[in-house]
Amino acid sequence: MIEIGQYLERKKVLIDRELAERLPQSGPTLVSDAMRHSLEAGGKRLRPILVLAAADTLGSEDSSIIEVACALEYVHTYSLIHDDLPAMDNSDLRRGKPSCHRVYGEALAILAGDALLTLAFELIANYGRQGGKGTKAVKIMAELAAAAGVTGMIGGQVLDLEAEGSDPTLEKVENIAKMKTGALLRAAILCGAIAADASSEQMRALNIYASKIGPAFQIIDDLLDYEGTTEELGKPAGADQTRLKATYPALLGPEEARRRAEILYNDALKALESLDCPAELLSGLAEKMIYRTR
Amino acid sequence: MIEIGQYLERKKVLIDRELAERLPQSGPTLVSDAMRHSLEAGGKRLRPILVLAAADTLGSEDSSIIEVACALEYVHTYSLIHDDLPAMDNSDLRRGKPSCHRVYGEALAILAGDALLTLAFELIANYGRQGGKGTKAVKIMAELAAAAGVTGMIGGQVLDLEAEGSDPTLEKVENIAKMKTGALLRAAILCGAIAADASSEQMRALNIYASKIGPAFQIIDDLLDYEGTTEELGKPAGADQTRLKATYPALLGPEEARRRAEILYNDALKALESLDCPAELLSGLAEKMIYRTR
Description:
Shape of chain A: globular
Oligomer: homodimer
Mean pLDDT of chain A: 92
CATH architecture of chain A: Orthogonal Bundle
Largest interface: A-B, 54 and 54 residues
Low-confidence stretches of chain A: none
Radius of gyration of chain A: 18 Å
Strand content of chain A: under 5%
Order of helices and strands of chain A: HHHHEEHHHHHHHHHH
Structural class of chain A: mainly alpha
Helix content of chain A: over 70%
CATH superfamily of chain A: Farnesyl Diphosphate Synthase
């Protein structure tokens, strides 16, 4: 029986170290510093942990998967840096520290984000060059690019910006959550599964699991913003309300929003039942994602 | 004997069509429109043509290389969009048309650039999924990511921004040119060569060729900006001087700058002599790159 808290802690230490080690050792230090600033601001490392947990669940013992895990976090961090820019969400705080452009200026923040996205794909290439993993690397890259691109994260950010100030509908909110947050969370699971040579049945079960926990996570995020304080969140609380962002609790009320998150959580657990291997790691992770206070 | 003008024209028509076809068909149309705006503003399509020309020179007949060629142009176009942003070079004109952020606003321009970079890697993944080209795709991806990243294009842009207004030296100018323009031009040749299964000797020759034509191309670019008019250039002429950018003609005078470009051009031609196949395509291309008026 895996103790989920210990697992998360152990993996976070590993991931933090590996993320730092893979930052550029050459090129202008200013941009590496800006990349490091945003990476070291912390965060739960949820996406790389999902990569590792999916692979661990399927019994993989290939340590090179850490390249894929780091790539997912780099993509996530790049998206935070660009989302915080004055032209986008104009956010001064991120993970309790000044956002990248507040410290390094807009130009460097744009370039640091670009560099993290580029580095992510370089890591997938590194992964693929180890022991003939070319075919798997290419599949992982396709998943990651689709999740990060116009039909995923970038598309979600565009819809989010478009929706600002307009009349929010539940359909819009769900669509934005699915694209902006859900796509990369889902890709994390699928990339881990691909690296671990998942069978098509395992892939199907994990795909359902992944499609449920993403929106559930976003609902909880919205709820924490809705109810929380700046200190707890590490970013300006109530920022979504101030900017008239469409969120689940604003539309449904906090109780109904939480109920929906729990339904999604239960659906995710049910999907794991059809896996042919013990999945307490992924069920435990889902629980941590839903029943969290920050 | 290949007529180089005809080759360029034929390939440009092909590339223009394929670039348009690979733009996202789903996701928010606003971001696809912004991507299309900057792609359709034209340009010589030099990078994708170099990909195709390198592969053609080595006798490749694999048509899926067009994915790689388009990826190179997407990366180039993304870099133009981000470089033009107010926080960077703050340029209102690009290729004779209003720059992306002038038409779509800063947020969309940042996201359109991000999306083009992401799409580029998706195309490399597509290339790799066709007929077991995983290993080659992974090598191409590594080249492209290195050329686009902190030790290449992004690093060059950082150095360029840092150098602004400071005392320019020839060493700085050479380094910036090598990273900001040279790296991606070189990658175009090498990616084409990898796709065409170049031998290590062919790779060596093409690497030298590629390392020479990049800086030569940049010198001519600087010269055209130095001497040209806005109408000829499609971007504000003399912009580099106004912003105290370090350029070759500013440092060396136009005659010496041109002489250096010609030395690099001759070195590039010499490298082609050690190729074991006819290389008039690449020598013709180098000539066109150096003896151009826009």
